[in-house]
């Protein structure tokens, strides 16, 4: 029993590691811990404090080199679409391409690709892919 066919044990272990990374400063130790639970992280990736990496399917996240993830951002790879005793769960990759910026307290939903050098403003809800070099913000995030 668990969520999205992932055991409570594994979710719990991942969550403890994510919580530890939330209080660590950006850097190699933090990135190594996140790689340990399956996140693919490139070089010189700067993950701010309080970022939530989905503990249920962290291995579906890829963050390329030179990316900055802002304070408190949330990267969710799973989505529960029905409950009522019969859980329906969708999970999909998140890919943040090189040189992109994800603003503080922004949420990235499952299935989204943030393009190379893209800029996502703070407090946004990213539902759709962001093109290379695009600047988006707001709820939902779009070019404004
Ligand atoms: C998106 C961003 C780059 C826009 O900056 P900008 O181009 O200077 O734009 P402005 O501040 O002039 O704002 C332009 C309009 O967009 C709105 N706006 C700006 N940022 C917004 C955001 N994140 N969400 C919703 N609306 C936003 C402004 O209210 C303004 O609206 P108005 O014209 O109706 O008054 C900037 O607001 C931002 O979010 N930067 C990232 C900050 C961050 O994440 N810091 C933490 C890092 S750890």
How far apart lie the N and C ends?
44 Å
N-to-C SSE string, H for helix and E for strand: EEHHEEEEEEEEEEEEEEE
Helix segment tally? 2
Tell me the overall shape: globular
* Low-confidence segments: none
Radius of gyration, Cα only, in angstroms?
Answer: 15 Å
Question: Helical percent range?
Answer: 10-25%
Proportion of beta-strand residues: 25-35%
Report mean pLDDT, rounded to a whole number. 96
Structural class: alpha/beta
How many strands in all? 17
Main beta-sheet annotation: 5 strands, parallel
Give the distinct bound molecules: coenzyme A
- The spatial strand order of the largest sheet comes to 4-7-12-15-17
How would you sum up this structure, described in words?
The model has no long low-confidence stretch (mean pLDDT 96). The chain is of the alpha/beta class. The strands form five sheets. It has a five-stranded parallel β-sheet, with no helix packed on it. Helix 1 packs antiparallel against helix 2 (28-36). The chain contains two helices and 17 strands. Residues 48, 70-71, 103-104, 121-124, 137-138 line the site of coenzyme A.
List its salient traits:
144 residues; alpha/beta; 5-stranded parallel beta sheet; 4-stranded parallel beta sheet; 17 strands; binds coenzyme A
Note the topology.
Layout: E1 2-3, E2 6-7, H1 8-23, H2 28-36, E3 40-41, E4 46-47, E5 52-53, E6 61-63, E7 68-69, E8 74-75, E9 78-82, E10 88-91, E11 94-96, E12 101-102, E13 107-108, E14 113-114, E15 119-120, E16 125-126, E17 135-136
Parallel strand pairs: 3-6, 4-7, 5-8, 6-11, 7-12, 8-13, 11-14, 12-15, 13-16, 15-17
Antiparallel strand pairs: 1-2, 9-10
Helix pairs in contact: 1-2
Bound molecules: coenzyme A.
